[in-house]
UniProtKB/TrEMBL annotation:
It comes from Pontibacter korlensis. Catalyzes the first step in hexosamine metabolism, converting fructose-6P into glucosamine-6P using glutamine as a nitrogen source. Its EC number is 2.6.1.16. It comes from the Bacteria. One of its GO terms (molecular function) is carbohydrate derivative binding. GO terms for biological process: amino sugar biosynthetic process; carbohydrate metabolic process; fructose 6-phosphate metabolic process; protein N-linked glycosylation; UDP-N-acetylglucosamine metabolic process. This is Glutamine--fructose-6-phosphate aminotransferase [isomerizing]. Keywords: Aminotransferase, Cytoplasm, Glutamine amidotransferase, Repeat, Transferase. The chain holds residues 246 to 611 of 611 of the full protein. One of its GO terms (cellular component) is cytosol. It catalyses: D-fructose 6-phosphate + L-glutamine = D-glucosamine 6-phosphate + L-glutamate. Homodimer. The keyword Transit peptide does not apply. Residues 43-182, 215-356 form the SIS domain. The keyword Transferase applies.
Amino acid sequence: EKGGYEHFMLKEIFEQPRSILDSMRGRMIAESNHLMMSGIREFENKFVNANRIIIVACGTSWHAGLVAEYLIEDLARIPVEVEYASEFRYRNPILNEKDIVIAISQSGETADTLAAIELAKSKGATIFGICNVVGSSIARATDAGAYTHAGPEIGVASTKAFTAQVTVLTLIAMIIGSKRGTLETTKLHELMVELETIPSKVEEALQLNDQIIKIAEQYKDVANCIYLGRGYNFPVALEGALKLKEISYIHAEGYPAAEMKHGPIALIDEQMPVVVIATKDSSYEKVVSNVQEVKARKGKVIAIVTEGDTTIPAMADHVIEIPETSEHLMPLLSVIPLQLLSYHIAVMRGCNVDQPRNLAKSVTVE
Ligand code: M6R
């Protein structure tokens, strides 16, 4: 049942070229400019005329929501707010009929997310669900939705569900952007073509596994770890840190790289590993400065870079090269080495990666 892999988590990490493809199958064909999602079509006018989109989710699904905030604001120019479902439900939020609430949940059973949906419904908002489990409570509670087609996710640490969520949210941002006229046809087509190449680029990123095992060996005994990223890679830094803490029990924190100097930089010394996502995108030059700041304090830098980069490799202690892509799609690639790094560190520490202590696959109590 684990398909020859030692753990479900590893199997699910390696399934991602397929699960990403399955999540776009039938919804997008670049060659014929086909881009369609039945759940959106029904509510197309609502989306096009929405005042605001509010995303509610928990944990890794909340991180996928953060990626969507960058995507939807950039491509569709609709203001987006991303909320922890647990906070949103108790905050007496301001909502009305022109707002769309997108609820993201792998299991479709998360109690806080379900309660946030019920609250938003009572205020007249339209609720759109993105779930992985067909027929789940959240899928049933929403007005419309789109399933991720990641297949069953057994490992408690979410991996393939995250990339499937980001894939579906990317398609949604592209659809709304094109309907609203904020995403021009040539740019849309370029993105579609690029998105189609992502499964094979994820496949390439998975080939970094042996290199990542060697890095994991060197860092498996650390007590702390910092993750930094900017722009589209900021949510990926948060996700990398969550993956490490939940399965290896190493204390890890993710930050927007520039926020480091407002406090966390005090933690950096020669013992502190800092994982920096420093791919070639619009914030690259800024991230180069952030890496210099870490090195000036003797932190150990593990950098995720775009293939062919020479600047960061000259400064970093370890370099993991991933394929080039549009910055809009980069989270789908940059998260892969972080999943593998957490997995191998946890296994080397003797942790139960599929069922970490104190955690359940879905949190059905508040
Ligand atoms: O099933 P959901 O997506 O609603 O679950 C949300 C979180 O409980 C979940 O993502 C959790 O944070 C995972 N253990 C992360 O790996």
